[in-house]
Design a protein that fits this description.
Layout: H1 2-13, H2 15-25, H3 29-40, H4 42-55, H5 64-92, H6 102-112, H7 114-119, H8 137-149, H9 154-181
Helix pairs in contact: 1-2, 2-8, 3-6, 4-5, 5-6, 5-9, 6-8, 8-9
């Protein structure tokens, strides 16, 4: 657990050095999923559950099972968003002169979304949800990670960051929207 917390702290506070450490670790998707993603994605999902069932939204609380289903769906959809985002970024990489590498793309997306997953704790208190926008710090993490993880050339870095950032933003919005619409 200490390594998990240290990784969160390091990627958020010193991304340049942390991306180099991540590159050297060379973990595959299964390793990242088991050691990091399954836990970090739980933060906004648990916060959403608490916000729905205990704190309430707009003057009323959701039932326990409704909240549980929405939180579980949100959890699964966020993991799926990472997979889809990593796949798409890996497929787009050659178009921007970057190296294709499925595991590196998965690491890139997982760690870039750390800011969003951590700030997702604000789902507990509905009035604070607009501050989820602070998750956009993940675009900066993406910008710092693309050259290290995908060998993105400097002249294509801004464009690839914008395209990838928009893609990830859309996936996150879709996952939140679907979790709230389906139940």
């Amino acid at each position: 657990m200490d390594q998990f917390v240290d990784r969160i702290k390091n990627i958020l506070l010193s991304p340049a050095e942390t991306w180099e450490k991540i590159r050297v670790e060379n973990l595959n998707r299964k390793g990242i999923l088991q050691q990091y993603l399954l836990y970090i994605v739980a933060i906004p999902a648990i916060a959403l559950f608490v916000g729905l069932v205990i704190v309430g939204r707009y003057g009323h609380t959701a039932g326990f099972f409704t909240g549980l289903i929405k939180a579980a769906l949100f959890y699964i959809l966020n993991i799926l968003s990472v997979w889809v985002g990593a796949y798409a970024i890996n497929q787009l990489a050659p178009s921007f002169g970057c190296e294709k590498n499925e595991d590196s793309a998965f690491q890139l997306v997982t760690y870039s979304l750390t800011a969003y997953f951590v700030i997702g704790v604000l789902f507990i208190i509905p009035v604070l949800e607009p501050f989820i926008i602070l998750g956009f710090y993940g675009v900066y993490l993406l910008y710092k990670g693309l050259p290290v993880m995908m060998k993105c050339p400097e002249d294509k870095l801004v464009n690839f960051t914008i395209v990838s950032g928009l893609l990830l933003f859309c996936l996150v919005i879709i996952s939140f929207g679907l979790a709230n619409l389906l139940i």
